Every structure is written in C-alpha cells, then in structure tokens.
Amino acid sequence: VVLANYCHEYPLQGKSIHKEVEPRLTGNEVAHAILWGTETGYLWNKLFLSDKLKQYRHLVKSGRNFWEDLVLTTLLLYNAKKVGYYPKVAIHYVHHSNTQYTAVTKPEYIDTLAEILEDFEKEFEGTKDRELKRAFNYLKMRIFTILAQLPIRYYKAFRKPIFKVEWALFPHDLRNTIKYFAYSLTQKRYTAWFTTPLYKLAHTLHHQLYEKKTYQA
Fold first, then answer.
1. Strand 84-94 vs strand 2-10: parallel, antiparallel, or unpaired?
2. How far is CA 154 from CA 19, 157, 211, in A?
3. Strand partners of residue 4
4. pTM to 2 decimals?
5. Within the chain, which residues score under 50 in pLDDT?
6. Which of 20, 143, 197, 198 has the maximal Cβ count within 10 Å?
C-alpha cells in the first residue's frame, strides 16, 4: 500500500487546506488510526494492488455513498504486509458543492452506518487484537457524534446493539467522558431529551479548544 499527501480545495473561498499523511510503521497501525479518526479513510489518496482490491470487492455496496471507502481501506491496510509513503501532494480534492463533509446529517445514514459496522464485525469476527477492539469501539462513538445531529425522534437507533459503545474499551479522559455521558443519555427514552443540548455544548467546546477553522463548499 502507498499513501500520499493530499489537499482539500475550496474554490468558492479561494482556500486550500494541505493535509500530510503521518508515516507509521505498519498497515495495522494505519488501520487503527483510521478507526480512531486520527487518519483519514479516503480511498483516493491510497494506492493498492489490484488483486488485493478484488479480494474485498464484496464490501463495495451499491447505493452506499457515505463512508463507503472507510471499511474497504481499513481492512486493506490492516492486512497489508508493507506500507509506503509518497511525501508530495498527489491529489487535489475540489469541493464544488455539498459533500458528506459539508452537508447536514440525513436519516438514511442510520442504516448505512449500521451496515458498515456489521461489515466490520463480520470481517474482524474472532479477533484477539484488543487495540483493534478499542479503535472499533471508538468508531461507534464517532458515528454517534454524526447521528446525534438528527432530530431526537431518531435517537432510538442508538439503542440497537450494533451501535453499542462499551465504556470499558473507551478512553476515560474528560472530553471523551462527556461524549460518553451524552451517548448514555440516549439509552433511555426519558433521558434522551437531554442529549441534544449536551451534545451541542460538547461540540462547541471541542471546536473552540481543539479544532482549527474549516471551510464550507
């Protein structure tokens, strides 16, 4: 596998955001980083052997247009024997209109993300890799932060077993504890109403303290 640097282009604002891939020793480490959200799961800045891609073509589902590359790239990297890096910008991703990064969350994402989690569970069934389990558990929290933007009537989806986030495998620092508390409120109908204001507060604090300014297409 070869990973390359890339650039997000926002022509309407005249902005370019350069992204560098962090060199890691193994594909296993890159796969963990993708699940944790510290590395991107994009397909378009990665080069794979065609025969390896064909092995996982069953994961390419018709109609899946949100995080459709995440499950594929994660599995390919997790099983990769060697990872190389191209230190220059190889891809310019031009944002002309709304994408999954700029559009609002849609209710149909619930089923899409549930299917992606099911694909992961099938592929990693029986694994003894605890770090992989922790990273996969955190992926579920990342999914929660996306779906939590939906109206409260959709919060019952968080009570499905496929979306369950395990506290024992979750980071216990302050920021993540707040996230988990917001998630735990959705597990009961009578407390789910408090999730939205808490989530918005946590999101605002995270944006102010941790994230740099982003741009809309």
1. parallel
2. 34, 6, 27
3. 86
4. 0.84
5. 213-217
6. 143
